[in-house]
Amino acid sequence: MADKVDVVALAKLARLEVSGEELAKLEKEIPAILEFVAEIQKANAPKEAATPVLHNVMRADENPIEPGTHTESLVSAAPSREGDRISVKQVISRKHA
Amino acid sequence: MDLSTLTIAQARKDLDAKKYSALELSQAYLDAIAKKDQGIHAYLEVWADSAQKEAKHADELIKAGKSQALTGIPLAIKDNILIEGRTCSSASKMLEHYKASYDATVITKLKAEGAVFLGRTNMDEFAMGSSTENSAFGPTMNPHDTTRVPGGSSGGSAAAVAAGMALAALGSDTGGSIRQPSSHCGLVGLKPTYGAVSRYGLMPMGSSLDQIGPLARTVDDARILFEEIRGYDAQDSTSNPDGMYKAGKVRKVIGVPRAFLEKGVDPDVLALFNATIERLRKAGYQIEDVAMPNLPYALPVYYVVCPAEVSTNLARYDGVRYGLSVPAATVGESYEKIRAAGFGPETRRRIVLGTFVLSSGYADAYYRTARAVRDVIRADFTNAFKEVDCVAMPTAPGPAFKLGEKTSDPLAMYLEDIFSVTANLAGVPALSVPAGTVAREGKQLPVGFQLMGAHGGEDMLFAIAKDVERTGA
Protein backbone atom coordinates (compact mmCIF):
# COMPACT_ATOMS: atom_id res chain seq x y z
CA MET A 1 0.00 0.00 0.00
CA ALA A 2 1.62 3.22 -1.13
CA ASP A 3 -0.52 6.17 -0.20
CA LYS A 4 0.01 9.44 -1.99
CA VAL A 5 1.80 11.72 0.40
CA ASP A 6 1.39 15.46 0.15
CA VAL A 7 4.61 16.53 1.88
CA VAL A 8 3.88 20.22 1.37
CA ALA A 9 0.58 19.91 3.25
CA LEU A 10 2.18 17.84 6.02
CA ALA A 11 5.01 20.34 6.45
CA LYS A 12 2.43 23.09 6.72
CA LEU A 13 0.56 21.14 9.42
CA ALA A 14 3.83 20.52 11.27
CA ARG A 15 4.84 24.21 11.00
CA LEU A 16 7.98 23.37 9.07
CA GLU A 17 9.44 25.44 6.28
CA VAL A 18 10.83 22.95 3.75
CA SER A 19 13.21 23.85 0.93
CA GLY A 20 12.65 22.59 -2.61
CA GLU A 21 15.63 20.30 -2.34
CA GLU A 22 14.45 18.74 0.92
CA LEU A 23 10.93 18.42 -0.45
CA ALA A 24 12.20 16.31 -3.36
CA LYS A 25 14.06 14.06 -0.91
CA LEU A 26 11.14 13.68 1.48
CA GLU A 27 8.76 12.92 -1.39
CA LYS A 28 10.89 9.84 -2.08
CA GLU A 29 11.78 8.86 1.50
CA ILE A 30 8.41 9.19 3.23
CA PRO A 31 6.53 6.81 0.86
CA ALA A 32 9.41 4.31 1.13
CA ILE A 33 9.21 4.37 4.93
CA LEU A 34 5.41 4.13 4.80
CA GLU A 35 5.63 1.12 2.53
CA PHE A 36 7.92 -0.50 5.11
CA VAL A 37 5.72 0.28 8.11
CA ALA A 38 2.54 -0.78 6.23
CA GLU A 39 3.68 -4.34 7.12
CA ILE A 40 1.73 -3.85 10.37
CA GLN A 41 -1.51 -4.10 8.45
CA LYS A 42 -0.73 -7.80 7.84
CA ALA A 43 -0.50 -8.61 11.54
CA ASN A 44 -3.19 -10.67 13.15
CA ALA A 45 -4.30 -8.10 15.71
CA PRO A 46 -7.56 -6.57 16.83
CA LYS A 47 -8.55 -3.34 15.11
CA GLU A 48 -8.06 -1.21 18.20
CA ALA A 49 -5.58 -1.34 21.03
CA ALA A 50 -7.03 -2.45 24.34
CA THR A 51 -8.03 0.39 26.62
CA PRO A 52 -5.32 0.57 29.27
CA VAL A 53 -6.20 0.34 32.93
CA LEU A 54 -6.27 3.94 34.06
CA HIS A 55 -5.36 5.23 37.46
CA ASN A 56 -5.19 8.76 38.78
CA VAL A 57 -1.69 10.19 38.70
CA MET A 58 -2.65 13.75 39.61
CA ARG A 59 -1.43 15.05 42.93
CA ALA A 60 -3.85 16.47 45.47
CA ASP A 61 -4.56 20.17 44.95
CA GLU A 62 -2.70 21.36 48.04
CA ASN A 63 0.56 22.98 49.14
CA PRO A 64 0.71 25.49 46.29
CA ILE A 65 4.11 26.88 45.35
CA GLU A 66 4.55 30.55 46.29
CA PRO A 67 4.01 32.76 43.24
CA GLY A 68 7.33 33.87 41.79
CA THR A 69 9.34 30.89 43.05
CA HIS A 70 10.30 29.68 39.57
CA THR A 71 9.46 32.77 37.54
CA GLU A 72 12.96 34.07 36.94
CA SER A 73 14.54 30.73 36.06
CA LEU A 74 11.76 29.97 33.55
CA VAL A 75 11.19 33.39 32.02
CA SER A 76 14.94 33.99 31.63
CA ALA A 77 15.02 31.08 29.17
CA ALA A 78 12.60 32.84 26.82
CA PRO A 79 14.05 34.55 23.75
CA SER A 80 11.95 37.65 24.42
CA ARG A 81 10.47 39.01 27.64
CA GLU A 82 8.78 42.04 29.14
CA GLY A 83 9.25 42.08 32.88
CA ASP A 84 8.00 38.79 34.24
CA ARG A 85 6.12 37.97 31.07
CA ILE A 86 7.18 36.14 27.92
CA SER A 87 6.67 38.42 24.98
CA VAL A 88 5.32 36.98 21.72
CA LYS A 89 4.20 38.28 18.35
CA GLN A 90 0.57 39.18 18.01
CA VAL A 91 -1.34 35.93 17.45
CA ILE A 92 -4.83 37.17 16.51
CA SER A 93 -5.20 39.97 14.03
CA ARG A 94 -8.19 41.61 12.34
CA LYS A 95 -6.82 41.26 8.83
CA HIS A 96 -7.00 37.47 8.81
CA ALA A 97 -10.45 37.29 10.38
CA MET B 1 45.17 4.24 38.40
CA ASP B 2 44.58 2.76 34.96
CA LEU B 3 41.57 4.49 33.44
CA SER B 4 41.23 1.86 30.71
CA THR B 5 40.26 -0.79 33.26
CA LEU B 6 39.04 1.18 36.29
CA THR B 7 35.50 0.45 37.48
CA ILE B 8 33.12 2.31 39.80
CA ALA B 9 33.42 -0.56 42.26
CA GLN B 10 37.24 -0.32 42.31
CA ALA B 11 37.30 3.48 42.42
CA ARG B 12 34.93 3.38 45.40
CA LYS B 13 37.35 1.14 47.33
CA ASP B 14 40.35 3.26 46.33
CA LEU B 15 38.68 6.56 47.22
CA ASP B 16 37.48 5.30 50.59
CA ALA B 17 40.94 3.85 51.30
CA LYS B 18 42.41 7.28 50.33
CA LYS B 19 44.65 5.70 47.67
CA TYR B 20 43.86 8.80 45.64
CA SER B 21 41.46 11.69 46.11
CA ALA B 22 38.28 12.38 44.15
CA LEU B 23 40.02 15.50 42.85
CA GLU B 24 42.95 13.43 41.54
CA LEU B 25 40.54 10.95 39.99
CA SER B 26 38.52 13.63 38.23
CA GLN B 27 41.69 15.38 37.12
CA ALA B 28 42.90 12.12 35.57
CA TYR B 29 39.69 11.94 33.55
CA LEU B 30 39.86 15.61 32.57
CA ASP B 31 43.44 15.02 31.40
CA ALA B 32 42.34 11.97 29.42
CA ILE B 33 39.58 14.03 27.79
CA ALA B 34 42.04 16.81 26.93
CA LYS B 35 44.38 14.26 25.38
CA LYS B 36 41.95 12.02 23.52
CA ASP B 37 38.63 13.66 22.83
CA GLN B 38 39.77 15.64 19.83
CA GLY B 39 39.91 12.38 17.89
CA ILE B 40 36.69 10.93 19.35
CA HIS B 41 34.36 13.91 19.93
CA ALA B 42 32.42 12.20 22.70
CA TYR B 43 31.82 15.47 24.54
CA LEU B 44 29.94 18.55 23.42
CA GLU B 45 31.13 20.42 26.51
CA VAL B 46 33.56 19.56 29.29
CA TRP B 47 32.87 21.04 32.72
CA ALA B 48 36.41 21.11 34.11
CA ASP B 49 35.87 23.89 36.68
CA SER B 50 32.62 22.64 38.17
CA ALA B 51 33.93 19.05 38.08
CA GLN B 52 36.89 20.08 40.24
CA LYS B 53 34.55 21.81 42.69
CA GLU B 54 32.30 18.76 42.82
CA ALA B 55 35.34 16.54 43.36
CA LYS B 56 36.56 18.70 46.25
CA HIS B 57 33.10 18.48 47.80
CA ALA B 58 33.23 14.70 47.35
CA ASP B 59 36.62 14.59 49.10
CA GLU B 60 35.09 16.42 52.06
CA LEU B 61 32.26 13.88 52.20
CA ILE B 62 34.73 11.00 52.06
CA LYS B 63 36.89 12.60 54.75
CA ALA B 64 33.82 12.99 56.95
CA GLY B 65 33.02 9.30 56.48
CA LYS B 66 29.85 10.17 54.56
CA SER B 67 30.73 8.55 51.28
CA GLN B 68 27.98 6.86 49.28
CA ALA B 69 28.09 4.62 46.21
CA LEU B 70 28.80 7.42 43.72
CA THR B 71 30.62 9.98 45.87
CA GLY B 72 33.49 11.33 43.79
CA ILE B 73 32.68 9.12 40.80
CA PRO B 74 33.26 11.01 37.51
CA LEU B 75 30.32 10.59 35.14
CA ALA B 76 29.36 11.76 31.65
CA ILE B 77 25.80 12.91 31.03
CA LYS B 78 23.90 12.69 27.76
CA ASP B 79 23.04 16.10 26.38
CA ASN B 80 19.28 15.62 26.79
CA ILE B 81 19.28 15.41 30.60
CA LEU B 82 18.88 18.74 32.39
CA ILE B 83 21.38 20.13 34.90
CA GLU B 84 20.29 23.49 36.28
CA GLY B 85 22.17 26.44 34.87
CA ARG B 86 24.12 24.42 32.33
CA THR B 87 23.67 24.26 28.58
CA CYS B 88 21.57 21.29 27.46
CA SER B 89 21.11 21.14 23.70
CA SER B 90 19.98 17.64 22.70
CA ALA B 91 22.72 18.10 20.07
CA SER B 92 20.37 20.45 18.24
CA LYS B 93 20.74 23.96 16.83
CA MET B 94 17.28 24.51 18.32
CA LEU B 95 18.71 24.43 21.86
CA GLU B 96 22.35 25.35 21.18
CA HIS B 97 22.29 28.12 23.80
CA TYR B 98 19.54 26.78 26.06
CA LYS B 99 20.41 26.70 29.75
CA ALA B 100 18.42 24.25 31.86
CA SER B 101 16.02 25.84 34.34
CA TYR B 102 16.03 22.91 36.74
CA ASP B 103 17.70 19.58 37.55
CA ALA B 104 16.39 16.30 36.18
CA THR B 105 15.45 13.95 39.02
CA VAL B 106 18.32 11.61 38.12
CA ILE B 107 20.69 14.58 38.45
CA THR B 108 19.21 15.56 41.84
CA LYS B 109 19.91 12.00 42.98
CA LEU B 110 23.47 12.01 41.65
CA LYS B 111 24.17 15.40 43.21
CA ALA B 112 22.94 14.11 46.57
CA GLU B 113 25.48 11.30 46.26
CA GLY B 114 28.32 13.71 45.52
CA ALA B 115 28.94 12.43 41.99
CA VAL B 116 31.15 14.45 39.62
CA PHE B 117 29.82 15.59 36.22
CA LEU B 118 32.61 15.68 33.64
CA GLY B 119 30.57 17.02 30.77
CA ARG B 120 27.66 16.56 28.40
CA THR B 121 27.97 13.98 25.67
CA ASN B 122 27.22 14.02 21.98
CA MET B 123 24.13 12.26 20.63
CA ASP B 124 21.85 12.07 17.65
CA GLU B 125 19.71 15.20 17.63
CA PHE B 126 16.81 14.81 20.09
CA ALA B 127 17.95 11.16 20.45
CA MET B 128 16.82 10.22 16.94
CA GLY B 129 19.34 7.96 15.25
CA SER B 130 21.59 4.96 15.61
CA SER B 131 25.02 6.40 14.85
CA THR B 132 25.37 9.85 16.52
CA GLU B 133 25.81 11.23 12.99
CA ASN B 134 22.57 13.20 13.38
CA SER B 135 24.21 15.53 15.89
CA ALA B 136 24.11 19.16 14.75
CA PHE B 137 27.66 19.48 16.08
CA GLY B 138 29.42 16.71 14.15
CA PRO B 139 29.65 12.95 14.69
CA THR B 140 31.38 10.95 17.42
CA MET B 141 33.99 8.34 16.46
CA ASN B 142 34.12 4.80 17.85
CA PRO B 143 37.20 4.41 20.10
CA HIS B 144 37.69 0.84 18.81
CA ASP B 145 38.00 2.09 15.23
CA THR B 146 37.72 5.81 14.59
CA THR B 147 36.52 5.27 11.01
CA ARG B 148 33.36 3.78 12.51
CA VAL B 149 30.36 5.13 14.39
CA PRO B 150 29.91 4.47 18.13
CA GLY B 151 26.23 3.71 17.57
CA GLY B 152 23.48 5.95 18.81
CA SER B 153 21.75 7.84 19.93
CA SER B 154 23.79 7.79 23.19
CA GLY B 155 27.00 7.47 21.14
CA GLY B 156 28.92 10.18 23.00
CA SER B 157 28.18 8.58 26.37
CA ALA B 158 29.32 5.18 25.06
CA ALA B 159 32.48 6.52 23.42
CA ALA B 160 33.40 8.51 26.55
CA VAL B 161 33.29 5.41 28.77
CA ALA B 162 34.91 3.11 26.19
CA ALA B 163 37.82 5.53 25.69
CA GLY B 164 38.45 5.92 29.42
CA MET B 165 37.13 9.48 29.42
CA ALA B 166 34.41 8.78 32.03
CA LEU B 167 33.95 6.04 34.58
CA ALA B 168 30.33 5.54 33.53
CA ALA B 169 27.61 7.55 31.82
CA LEU B 170 23.91 8.20 31.63
CA GLY B 171 22.07 7.74 28.36
CA SER B 172 18.48 7.48 27.25
CA ASP B 173 16.92 4.63 25.30
CA THR B 174 13.79 5.00 23.16
CA GLY B 175 14.44 2.17 20.69
CA GLY B 176 17.91 0.94 21.59
CA SER B 177 19.83 4.16 22.19
CA ILE B 178 21.66 2.85 25.26
CA ARG B 179 22.05 -0.81 24.26
CA GLN B 180 23.15 -0.48 20.64
CA PRO B 181 26.01 1.99 21.37
CA SER B 182 26.97 -0.20 24.34
CA SER B 183 27.16 -3.14 21.95
CA HIS B 184 29.23 -1.17 19.43
CA CYS B 185 31.62 0.18 22.09
CA GLY B 186 32.04 -2.94 24.24
CA LEU B 187 30.06 -1.75 27.28
CA VAL B 188 27.21 -2.89 29.49
CA GLY B 189 24.07 -0.84 28.86
CA LEU B 190 20.68 -1.11 30.53
CA LYS B 191 17.29 0.12 29.40
CA PRO B 192 15.29 -0.17 32.61
CA THR B 193 11.64 -1.18 32.87
CA TYR B 194 9.36 1.57 31.58
CA GLY B 195 8.69 3.78 34.61
CA ALA B 196 11.60 2.45 36.72
CA VAL B 197 13.68 5.64 36.40
CA SER B 198 12.15 9.11 36.56
CA ARG B 199 12.10 11.02 33.29
CA TYR B 200 11.54 14.39 34.92
CA GLY B 201 14.09 16.61 33.22
CA LEU B 202 14.74 14.28 30.29
CA MET B 203 13.86 15.92 26.99
CA PRO B 204 11.00 13.79 25.70
CA MET B 205 11.18 12.05 22.34
CA GLY B 206 8.80 9.09 22.35
CA SER B 207 7.04 9.33 25.69
CA SER B 208 5.60 5.81 25.68
CA LEU B 209 9.11 4.44 25.01
CA ASP B 210 11.81 6.67 26.60
CA GLN B 211 13.86 5.55 29.61
CA ILE B 212 17.07 6.85 31.19
CA GLY B 213 19.69 4.23 31.98
CA PRO B 214 23.37 3.54 32.67
CA LEU B 215 26.28 2.75 30.33
CA ALA B 216 29.24 1.24 32.15
CA ARG B 217 32.25 -0.99 31.76
CA THR B 218 30.95 -3.88 33.88
CA VAL B 219 27.64 -5.39 34.93
CA ASP B 220 28.34 -4.40 38.55
CA ASP B 221 28.95 -0.79 37.54
CA ALA B 222 25.75 -0.62 35.50
CA ARG B 223 23.91 -2.02 38.47
CA ILE B 224 25.44 0.47 40.92
CA LEU B 225 24.44 3.40 38.73
CA PHE B 226 20.94 1.99 38.10
CA GLU B 227 20.33 1.44 41.82
CA GLU B 228 21.13 5.08 42.52
CA ILE B 229 18.87 6.60 39.84
CA ARG B 230 15.85 4.29 40.04
CA GLY B 231 12.72 4.80 42.10
CA TYR B 232 9.33 6.45 42.19
CA ASP B 233 9.17 10.18 41.51
CA ALA B 234 6.08 12.26 42.12
CA GLN B 235 7.31 14.66 39.41
CA ASP B 236 6.91 12.00 36.71
CA SER B 237 3.35 10.77 36.24
CA THR B 238 4.63 7.70 34.36
CA SER B 239 6.94 6.71 37.21
CA ASN B 240 6.21 3.31 38.75
CA PRO B 241 5.33 3.18 42.44
CA ASP B 242 7.97 1.23 44.37
CA GLY B 243 7.12 -2.44 44.66
CA MET B 244 4.76 -2.34 41.66
CA TYR B 245 6.28 -5.48 40.16
CA LYS B 246 6.87 -8.54 42.26
CA ALA B 247 10.01 -10.52 41.51
CA GLY B 248 9.13 -13.85 39.96
CA LYS B 249 10.66 -17.24 40.76
CA VAL B 250 13.95 -17.64 38.91
CA ARG B 251 14.12 -20.95 37.05
CA LYS B 252 17.28 -20.21 35.05
CA VAL B 253 15.49 -20.73 31.75
CA ILE B 254 16.50 -18.55 28.80
CA GLY B 255 14.25 -18.28 25.76
CA VAL B 256 15.55 -17.71 22.24
CA PRO B 257 13.08 -16.52 19.57
CA ARG B 258 14.89 -18.52 16.87
CA ALA B 259 12.51 -17.74 14.02
CA PHE B 260 13.11 -14.00 14.52
CA LEU B 261 16.89 -14.40 14.21
CA GLU B 262 16.84 -16.21 10.89
CA LYS B 263 17.53 -13.23 8.69
CA GLY B 264 19.14 -9.83 8.85
CA VAL B 265 21.97 -10.74 11.27
CA ASP B 266 25.63 -10.85 10.19
CA PRO B 267 26.69 -14.55 10.23
CA ASP B 268 29.60 -14.00 12.63
CA VAL B 269 27.41 -11.93 14.97
CA LEU B 270 24.87 -14.76 15.03
CA ALA B 271 27.68 -17.27 15.62
CA LEU B 272 28.88 -15.20 18.58
CA PHE B 273 25.32 -15.07 19.92
CA ASN B 274 25.03 -18.86 19.65
CA ALA B 275 28.40 -19.31 21.36
CA THR B 276 27.23 -17.10 24.23
CA ILE B 277 24.06 -19.16 24.56
CA GLU B 278 26.24 -22.29 24.72
CA ARG B 279 28.35 -20.72 27.48
CA LEU B 280 25.20 -20.06 29.47
CA ARG B 281 24.00 -23.62 28.89
CA LYS B 282 27.31 -24.90 30.28
CA ALA B 283 26.92 -22.51 33.22
CA GLY B 284 23.71 -24.30 34.17
CA TYR B 285 20.98 -22.48 32.27
CA GLN B 286 18.26 -24.27 30.37
CA ILE B 287 17.85 -22.91 26.83
CA GLU B 288 14.44 -23.05 25.15
CA ASP B 289 13.10 -21.88 21.79
CA VAL B 290 10.24 -19.44 22.29
CA ALA B 291 7.62 -18.58 19.71
CA MET B 292 7.16 -14.82 19.56
CA PRO B 293 5.41 -14.60 16.20
CA ASN B 294 4.76 -10.87 16.28
CA LEU B 295 8.36 -9.71 16.79
CA PRO B 296 8.86 -9.12 13.04
CA TYR B 297 6.24 -6.36 13.32
CA ALA B 298 8.15 -4.57 16.07
CA LEU B 299 10.31 -2.36 13.85
CA PRO B 300 7.44 -1.21 11.59
CA VAL B 301 5.27 -0.57 14.67
CA TYR B 302 8.11 1.41 16.24
CA TYR B 303 8.53 3.58 13.16
CA VAL B 304 4.86 4.54 13.38
CA VAL B 305 4.56 5.03 17.15
CA CYS B 306 7.89 6.82 17.59
CA PRO B 307 7.48 9.44 14.83
CA ALA B 308 3.89 10.04 15.97
CA GLU B 309 5.10 10.82 19.48
CA VAL B 310 8.04 12.83 18.12
CA SER B 311 5.76 15.02 16.04
CA THR B 312 3.66 15.87 19.09
CA ASN B 313 6.51 16.13 21.62
CA LEU B 314 8.61 18.38 19.41
CA ALA B 315 5.70 20.74 18.79
CA ARG B 316 6.91 22.49 21.97
CA TYR B 317 9.93 23.92 20.11
CA ASP B 318 8.35 27.07 18.77
CA GLY B 319 10.82 29.70 19.96
CA VAL B 320 8.41 31.15 22.52
CA ARG B 321 9.46 29.83 25.93
CA TYR B 322 13.04 28.76 25.12
CA GLY B 323 15.39 27.87 22.30
CA LEU B 324 16.10 29.33 18.92
CA SER B 325 14.18 32.40 17.83
CA VAL B 326 13.99 33.73 14.27
CA PRO B 327 12.29 37.04 13.50
CA ALA B 328 9.41 36.96 11.01
CA ALA B 329 6.39 39.04 10.04
CA THR B 330 3.78 36.81 11.68
CA VAL B 331 3.78 34.30 14.50
CA GLY B 332 2.99 31.43 12.09
CA GLU B 333 5.87 32.36 9.85
CA SER B 334 8.24 32.55 12.80
CA TYR B 335 7.30 28.99 13.87
CA GLU B 336 8.03 27.69 10.39
CA LYS B 337 11.36 29.49 10.15
CA ILE B 338 12.50 28.52 13.65
CA ARG B 339 11.71 24.88 13.06
CA ALA B 340 13.41 24.91 9.64
CA ALA B 341 16.57 26.49 11.07
CA GLY B 342 16.58 24.59 14.36
CA PHE B 343 15.83 20.97 13.41
CA GLY B 344 18.16 18.69 11.43
CA PRO B 345 17.10 16.41 8.55
CA GLU B 346 16.25 13.26 10.55
CA THR B 347 14.22 15.23 13.08
CA ARG B 348 12.26 16.90 10.28
CA ARG B 349 11.78 13.56 8.54
CA ARG B 350 10.26 12.04 11.66
CA ILE B 351 8.06 15.05 12.31
CA VAL B 352 6.64 14.85 8.77
CA LEU B 353 6.21 11.08 9.08
CA GLY B 354 4.55 11.41 12.47
CA THR B 355 2.24 14.12 11.20
CA PHE B 356 1.19 11.79 8.38
CA VAL B 357 0.47 8.71 10.52
CA LEU B 358 -1.63 10.84 12.88
CA SER B 359 -3.47 12.76 10.17
CA SER B 360 -7.17 12.39 9.62
CA GLY B 361 -7.83 9.62 7.10
CA TYR B 362 -4.57 7.77 7.83
CA ALA B 363 -4.56 7.47 11.62
CA ASP B 364 -6.67 4.28 11.50
CA ALA B 365 -4.42 2.52 8.98
CA TYR B 366 -1.19 3.59 10.69
CA TYR B 367 -1.25 4.93 14.24
CA ARG B 368 -4.23 3.01 15.62
CA THR B 369 -3.18 -0.19 13.87
CA ALA B 370 0.35 0.22 15.24
CA ARG B 371 -1.03 0.57 18.77
CA ALA B 372 -3.10 -2.58 18.35
CA VAL B 373 -0.12 -4.53 16.97
CA ARG B 374 1.98 -3.20 19.83
CA ASP B 375 -0.48 -4.95 22.16
CA VAL B 376 0.09 -8.33 20.48
CA ILE B 377 3.88 -7.81 20.65
CA ARG B 378 3.50 -7.12 24.36
CA ALA B 379 1.41 -10.30 24.63
CA ASP B 380 4.24 -12.25 22.94
CA PHE B 381 6.47 -11.20 25.83
CA THR B 382 3.87 -11.96 28.49
CA ASN B 383 3.37 -15.43 27.01
CA ALA B 384 7.11 -16.04 26.67
CA PHE B 385 7.67 -15.15 30.32
CA LYS B 386 5.24 -17.88 31.34
CA GLU B 387 7.73 -20.39 29.89
CA VAL B 388 11.10 -18.72 30.37
CA ASP B 389 12.80 -16.25 32.74
CA CYS B 390 14.32 -14.09 30.09
CA VAL B 391 14.53 -13.71 26.33
CA ALA B 392 17.91 -13.45 24.59
CA MET B 393 18.75 -12.02 21.20
CA PRO B 394 21.58 -10.05 19.62
CA THR B 395 21.64 -6.35 20.54
CA ALA B 396 22.18 -5.19 16.97
CA PRO B 397 22.41 -7.05 13.64
CA GLY B 398 26.09 -6.22 13.16
CA PRO B 399 29.11 -4.52 14.74
CA ALA B 400 29.80 -0.78 14.41
CA PHE B 401 29.52 0.38 10.82
CA LYS B 402 31.50 3.00 8.90
CA LEU B 403 30.85 6.70 9.29
CA GLY B 404 28.63 7.75 6.40
CA GLU B 405 27.70 4.18 5.49
CA LYS B 406 24.00 4.52 6.31
CA THR B 407 23.39 8.26 6.38
CA SER B 408 21.78 8.43 2.94
CA ASP B 409 19.37 5.55 3.56
CA PRO B 410 17.02 6.11 6.51
CA LEU B 411 15.57 2.59 6.31
CA ALA B 412 19.03 0.97 6.48
CA MET B 413 19.71 3.03 9.60
CA TYR B 414 16.35 2.05 11.13
CA LEU B 415 17.21 -1.66 10.69
CA GLU B 416 19.96 -1.22 13.32
CA ASP B 417 17.15 -1.16 15.89
CA ILE B 418 15.39 -4.35 14.78
CA PHE B 419 16.18 -6.32 17.96
CA SER B 420 16.23 -3.49 20.48
CA VAL B 421 12.89 -1.74 19.80
CA THR B 422 10.98 -4.82 20.94
CA ALA B 423 11.78 -4.11 24.62
CA ASN B 424 10.71 -0.46 24.39
CA LEU B 425 7.40 -1.41 22.80
CA ALA B 426 6.73 -3.97 25.54
CA GLY B 427 8.10 -1.71 28.31
CA VAL B 428 10.30 -4.54 29.60
CA PRO B 429 13.89 -4.10 30.85
CA ALA B 430 16.70 -5.03 28.48
CA LEU B 431 20.44 -5.15 28.89
CA SER B 432 23.36 -5.45 26.47
CA VAL B 433 26.52 -7.13 27.73
CA PRO B 434 29.74 -7.63 25.72
CA ALA B 435 29.81 -11.10 24.15
CA GLY B 436 33.13 -10.96 22.29
CA THR B 437 34.39 -9.44 19.08
CA VAL B 438 34.14 -9.92 15.34
CA ALA B 439 36.78 -8.88 12.81
CA ARG B 440 36.16 -6.17 10.21
CA GLU B 441 39.00 -4.93 8.00
CA GLY B 442 41.62 -6.23 10.41
CA LYS B 443 40.04 -4.63 13.49
CA GLN B 444 38.38 -6.48 16.34
CA LEU B 445 34.99 -4.89 17.01
CA PRO B 446 32.88 -5.56 20.10
CA VAL B 447 29.44 -7.16 19.85
CA GLY B 448 26.76 -7.21 22.53
CA PHE B 449 24.45 -9.96 23.76
CA GLN B 450 20.99 -8.77 24.71
CA LEU B 451 18.81 -10.03 27.56
CA MET B 452 15.21 -8.98 28.14
CA GLY B 453 13.26 -9.71 31.31
CA ALA B 454 9.74 -9.33 32.58
CA HIS B 455 8.69 -5.92 33.97
CA GLY B 456 10.75 -5.18 37.07
CA GLY B 457 13.18 -8.01 36.25
CA GLU B 458 16.42 -6.00 36.24
CA ASP B 459 17.98 -8.07 39.03
CA MET B 460 17.68 -11.22 36.98
CA LEU B 461 19.17 -9.53 33.92
CA PHE B 462 22.16 -8.43 36.00
CA ALA B 463 22.59 -11.95 37.38
CA ILE B 464 22.56 -13.61 33.95
CA ALA B 465 24.76 -10.86 32.45
CA LYS B 466 27.27 -11.52 35.24
CA ASP B 467 27.46 -15.12 34.05
CA VAL B 468 28.04 -13.92 30.48
CA GLU B 469 30.78 -11.62 31.78
CA ARG B 470 32.32 -14.28 34.02
CA THR B 471 32.43 -17.02 31.37
CA GLY B 472 33.77 -14.68 28.66
CA ALA B 473 37.31 -14.65 27.38
In short:
The complex is a heterodimer of chains A (97) and B (473). Chain A has 97 residues and is mainly alpha-helical.
How do the strands and helices of this protein lay out in sequence?
The complex is a heterodimer of chains A (97) and B (473).
Chain A: H1 7-13, H2 20-37, H3 71-75, E1 81-82, E2 85-86
Antiparallel strand pairs in A: 1-2
Chain B: H1 8-16, H2 22-40, E1 43-46, H3 48-63, E2 74-78, H4 105-113, E3 116-121, H5 155-162, E4 168-173, H6 179-185, E5 188-191, E6 211-216, H7 219-229, E7 253-256, H8 267-282, E8 286-289, H9 298-313, H10 331-342, H11 345-357, H12 364-387, E9 390-394, H13 410-414, H14 421-426, E10 430-440, E11 443-453, H15 458-471
C-alpha-based Rg of chain B, rounded: 21 Å
Quote the beta fraction of chain A. Answer: under 5%
CATH topology of the domain at 8-229 in chain B: Amidase signature (AS) enzymes
Tell me the helix content of chain B. Answer: 25-40%
Reported by name, the CATH topology of the domain at 7-42 in chain A is Histone, subunit A
Question: What's the β-strand tally of chain B?
Answer: 11
N- to C-terminal separation of chain A? 40 Å
Secondary-structure-based class of chain B equals: alpha/beta
Please explain how this structure is put together.
The complex is a heterodimer of chains A (97) and B (473). With 97 residues, chain A is mainly alpha-helical. Chain A has a domain at 7-42: Histone, subunit A. Chain A has helices at 7-13, 20-37, 71-75, and strands at 81-82, 85-86. Chain A has a two-stranded antiparallel sheet with strand order 1-2. The two termini of chain A are 40 Å apart. In chain A, 16% of the residues are buried. With 473 residues, chain B is of the alpha/beta class. Chain B has a domain at 8-229: Amidase signature (AS) domain (Amidase signature (AS) enzymes, Alpha-Beta Complex). In chain B, strand 7 (253-256), helix 8 and strand 8 form a beta-alpha-beta unit. The two termini of chain B are 23 Å apart. The interface between A and B is large, with 50 and 61 residues.
